[in-house]
Amino acid sequence: MSFVKLRQPCPNCGGSDPVAINDNGSAKCFNCGTFFKNYSEASDGNVSDFSTYQRNINNNNSSSEASFNALTDRGISIETAKKYGVKSVLSSDGSIYEHHYPLYINNEVAATKIRRVQAKDFYWRGTTKGTGLFGQQLCKEGGKYITITEGECDAMAVYQLMGSQWSVVSVKNGAEGAVRDVKDNLEFLESYENIIINFDNDKAGREAAKKVARLLKPGKVKILTMPEQFKDANEMLKLGQHKAYVSSWWESKIYTPSGVLNVTDERDNYKKREKKESVPYPWQGLNDKLEGLRQGELITLTGGTGLGKSSVTREIEHWLVRNTKDNIGIIALEEDWRRTIDGILAIEANAKLHIDSVRSEYTDEQIDKMFDILYDGENKNRVWVHAHFGMNDLDSIFSKLRFMIVGCGCKWIVVDHLHMLVSCSLEGDERRTIDNIMHRLRTLVEETGAGLILVSHLRRIDGNRGHENGIATGLSHLRGSQSIAQLSDCVVSLERNQQADDPVESSTTKVRVLKSRYTGDVGLATSLYYDNNTGRLQELDMDDQDEIQVEL
What we know:
The chain is an alpha/beta fold. The protein contains 21 helices and 24 strands.
């Protein structure tokens, strides 16, 4: 019994071409391992005529039986062919018609893969059950090096390229069957100190190499990377690239699973890493601590109720519009979109434009001029806002966030605030909900590279003094979950004694850095004085505070 037709679809696993059919009508899938007693019935008759195919195989116009010859079409010497037991059949014109690759059980040929050169197909004689890898009969169990290739000719090519020194074997059924073949011979392969995987230089080969590497003991498996212009080892042999192959072989890198890097191999990537570009904050004290805002970071701004978190974000939004060319997306869940626009216009005007009496002092022309500066001309299509006030579905909000970043090209996103996102979730547990939201926000930042400014609340303080009294804050004051601090690159907190008798003190907010993953510099950064007449925040030092006090 022998295989007479290959590359048939499997009715069991759905593979497009993993089935080989025997001359008696039975078949085997080399993908899922299923044996079909009658393939024609199993596949509803979807198979070519056996007798016709068999006649085509037999009618090869050959002038001789299989014998040892140099495989001139592959650059394989007769010595190597004899070593591996590979015979060939010559056509009447002396060209090679077939290669015969033997597989052994206990040093006896149990199966032969027959590859037709011109037709570029193959079939089997005998049974492959229990056979080792191609070339395994030549290898002593245990040794210094063994190389695994994707094909028989590649194995023989590597043997020649490496000076016939080291053990070289091939899987039996190419990249598709590599995992199964290696599993079946795992004990034999792991008897070697170093295992080099040299599969084809294409996507299928590279993926199969990784899958095979995962089966073997970590630390001893290396994956050979050939120069990108070569398809496989046999091509390098035919082109006389001995030196290049030997270099690639010795430079094979130890396989490490995804997420683990060998630092030695990463020198070039380390030197080529992109410089983190930063945009300064509107206030020098924060720049001294944080060295600016950076895309690809999650910045959490926190503080007690009524301490000016929205005022700070407005200043930053206006600053980004005026000092960068980047698009900006704003999701303010506690206000109407018009109020969001008002907030940035108010910074430009140095006036509380959201108050009707103040807004009435400005003509339409004046409003248009400021609108043109911020939202038109060079800044056209740069600022995007959330247009739905109040409750939203959480998935819908994340969809809008992603659209702002990907669809609108926003490099900076402001989300005001976290606990409104929590209220949009159907989950009942606040801590678990915050964990989920923070992980989603973190993932979004990592995937897109956008800079995200997140407003968050502080938890209530037990005792006589709370956040309204200006107490110093810490990461433990963040409301709801430790994930806020853990997943943020930077946490900035606002502190202000709203109950102070001194009007300057009650209007002055201390800005404290609680976490800075980039610089590691934490502590009090600056003080911001809120001008109630203009609605603006002014950075202060001690001399500034004295001056304002005198003017009052």
